[in-house]
Amino acid sequence: MRYAAGDARDWVRNTLRGYLTVLYTPYREDGSIDEEGLRHNVRRTLEMPGVGGLSVNSLHQEFWTFTAAERKRLVEIVLEEVDGRAPVVIGCSDPSAETVVDLARHAAAAGADLVMAWPPFYGPRSAEGVRHFYEYVAGRIGIGLVLYSTTLPELGYYLTPPEVEALLPLPSVCAVQNTTLNLAQYAAMLERVGHDLPVATSLEEYHLFGQIAFPERAPRFLIGSSRPVLCQTREYPYCGRFIEAMAGGNMTEAAAEARTIMMIADRVQSQYFARGFHHVSLFKHVAGLLGMRAGPSRPGIAPASASERKEVEQVLRDLGLLSEGGA
């Protein structure tokens, strides 16, 4: 790790910048992970404008369809390919606290900078039970732990500001990803714990609001972002220009770039978030159109229909992100 035990929060706030962006997992015809395709995706994602690191094993990466061995092998490939060039957060989420500990220890040994764990995503859950879950995990790992707070029904549990505050005594807890799709809830999290803990979002409009409303608290990075992969190209670096404007303190220019990004996202993915889910297969198709190795999703994940694929391809052409021969 790049920080001493107990210094994870300061390291996160002082070091992380730009987008910590999601990856997509390509598969071979037999359904196994395409390891060379994954390496390609790592390289290409790190080259995207504005990207300052990776967030691995998010919803976009279909982690819950992997075997335990696949999860560890994927982490090893990603970290080997990154080779210390950028910070990497490894998702270790699982309903079993013991499994989270095992995955976190493996990630740390493989060279990860941080790990992330959702609240348990199955079974009866309560504030007390979730607190005990995080206490168990945090007390058994040495690497910095990022919490996850979302109102999306896919997870089915919202880690509230008071619940995050109750976890502040745990020294390994070093940040929280707050993706609530509700600006008031994001503001409440920043207000309640942002002085002590970096509260990061995945969305430009929330990040911009945080920098304006809570300039001394809001961190200088976004985490779990898919828009740098799905809503820009190297020829049209909207996300890169957003990060440059934010870094330069030019909020007017940043707001203009954010409006463009939001317009693209609204046509590509936000309609599905509004319905409460990540359309992983369709987002993966978009990533493939824009240069990532993609392929199908695994059983249990709804495939994108022909009409959905055709519609999003036309949207990308209309926006200039895809040439006529690109699909």
What is the topological layout?
Layout: H1 8-15, E1 18-22, H2 35-47, E2 51-56, H3 68-82, E3 88-91, H4 97-110, E4 114-117, H5 127-138, E5 144-150, H6 161-166, E6 173-179, H7 183-193, E7 199-200, H8 204-213, E8 221-225, H9 227-230, H10 238-247, H11 251-274, H12 280-289, H13 306-318
Helix pairs in contact: 2-3, 3-4, 4-5, 7-8, 8-11, 10-11, 12-13
What is this entry, summarized?
The chain is α/β, with parallel strands linked by helices and 327 residues long. The chain is 46% helix and 12% strand.
Structure explained in plain terms:
This protein is α/β, with parallel strands linked by helices and 327 residues long. The chain has one domain (8-318): Aldolase class I (TIM Barrel, Alpha-Beta Barrel). The protein is 46% helix and 12% strand. Strands 7-6-5-4-3-2-1-8 form an 8-stranded parallel β-sheet. α6 links the parallel β5 and β6 (173-179). The longest helix has 24 residues, at 251-274.
